[in-house]
TrEMBL record:
Family: Belongs to the radical SAM superfamily. MoaA family.
Domain Radical SAM core: 5-231
GO biological process, one term: Mo-molybdopterin cofactor biosynthetic process
Binding, [4Fe-4S] cluster 1: 21, 25, 28
Name of protein: Probable GTP 3',8-cyclase
Enzyme class, first EC level, given as a word: lyase
Catalytic function, reaction form: GTP + AH2 + S-adenosyl-L-methionine = (8S)-3',8-cyclo-7,8-dihydroguanosine 5'-triphosphate + 5'-deoxyadenosine + L-methionine + A + H(+)
Main function: Catalyzes the cyclization of GTP to (8S)-3',8-cyclo-7,8-dihydroguanosine 5'-triphosphate.
Organism: Thermococcus waiotapuensis
Binding site for GTP: 14, 62, 91, 151, 256-258
Residue numbers binding [4Fe-4S] cluster 2: 251, 254, 268
Pathway recorded for this protein: Cofactor biosynthesis; molybdopterin biosynthesis
Length: 307
């Protein structure tokens, strides 16, 4: 297993498959890829990377984008990766889940996170830039049949959807999904902007209320995030709170290494000075051992963003 200079193990790869997306979410952080990259890893290159990483104790992979399902070879990618990992998941906007949930599960996908920021059609359209709420809800219904668990990612934003938190909790209970409430996350240099001040909604008060109502509370090892089990009219539902801003505990327990869509190791979502190009080396004939050294170099560059 690989450890960084702060004693944090690296057990997860978060692989961005593309920067292309069929939605236009106005707050999207683009997985920290603040550049235009048409170059994308091939299925063979992704498989090779995951195979090499698995030898070093990295046995969990999350596929992200952009929107990963816009890649026509998404089923091939999933099928190639699965033999090397114990947990293969994906974050998606859900737009293609109605047709892809079953084939993705058959190819080897274990679970899925679906971005669902509102249950109101007008608010959903305002946030995502598309009028596809019904399509996504149908996709979630299909995903629950074949993937487990299905998590709903709700980025809570002031003046937009903060009033829907408890409605979303009920919806998660009704659909048999897990709800993740997520704070808007930005680098330090954006904190003082009008954008952040307008939309940032602190979740600490919500978390205190969840703690009061919970019949059980657990803690995840990654980020030490709390999971609250909340009673509703539709049964007990699991609610997780993701508070990354100024959260030293969150960063101290990060186990991820990111991979950009154009073949770079990236140590942190919020940093822009941490890219290590491995794809050029791969395409120039580098051995597995040489790729391992680049991966180790990236791990040693990792440091908590919030200290």
């Amino acid at each position: 297993m690989l450890y960084d200079r702060f004693g944090r193990p690296v057990t997860n790869l978060r692989i961005s498959l593309t920067q292309e997306c069929n939605f236009r979410c106005f707050f999207c952080h683009g997985e920290g890829q603040h550049f235009n990259a048409k170059l994308e890893l091939t299925p063979d290159e992704i498989e090779r990377l995951v195979r090499i990483a698995s030898r070093l104790g990295i046995n969990k992979v999350k596929l992200t984008g952009g929107e990963p399902t816009v890649r026509e070879d998404i089923l091939e990618i999933v099928g190639r990766i699965k033999p090397y990992v114990v947990d293969l998941s994906m974050t998606t906007n859900g737009s293609r889940l109605k047709e892809l949930a079953r084939p993705l599960a058959k190819a080897g996908l274990d679970r899925v996170n679906v971005s669902l920021h509102s249950l109101r059609r007008d608010v959903y359209k305002r946030i995502t830039g598309v009028d596809m709420l019904e399509t996504v809800l149908e996709g979630i219904e299909e995903a629950v049949k074949y993937l487990s668990p299905v998590k709903l990612n709700m980025t809570v934003m002031k003046g937009l959807n903060e009033g829907e938190i408890w409605d979303m909790i009920d919806f998660a209970a009704k659909t048999g999904t897990i709800l993740q409430l997520i704070e808007l996350e930005v680098p330090r240099e954006v904190e003082g902007t009008a954008f952040f001040k307008k939309y940032f909604y602190p979740l600490q008060p919500v978390e205190r209320e969840l703690e009061k109502r919970a019949v059980e509370t657990r803690e995840r090892s990654m980020h030490r995030r709390k999971k609250y089990f909340i009673p509703t009219d539709y049964g007990i539902v699991e609610v997780e709170v993701v508070r990354a801003m100024h959260n030293t505990l969150f960063c101290a327990n990060c186990t991820r290494l990111r991979v950009t869509s154009n073949g770079m190791f990236k140590t942190c979502l919020l940093r822009n000075d941490d890219l290590i190009d491995f794809l050029t080396a791969m395409r120039n004939g580098a051995s597995d051992e040489e790729i391992v050294e680049l991966l180790k170099k990236a791990v040693l560059m990792r440091e908590p963003y919030w200290k």
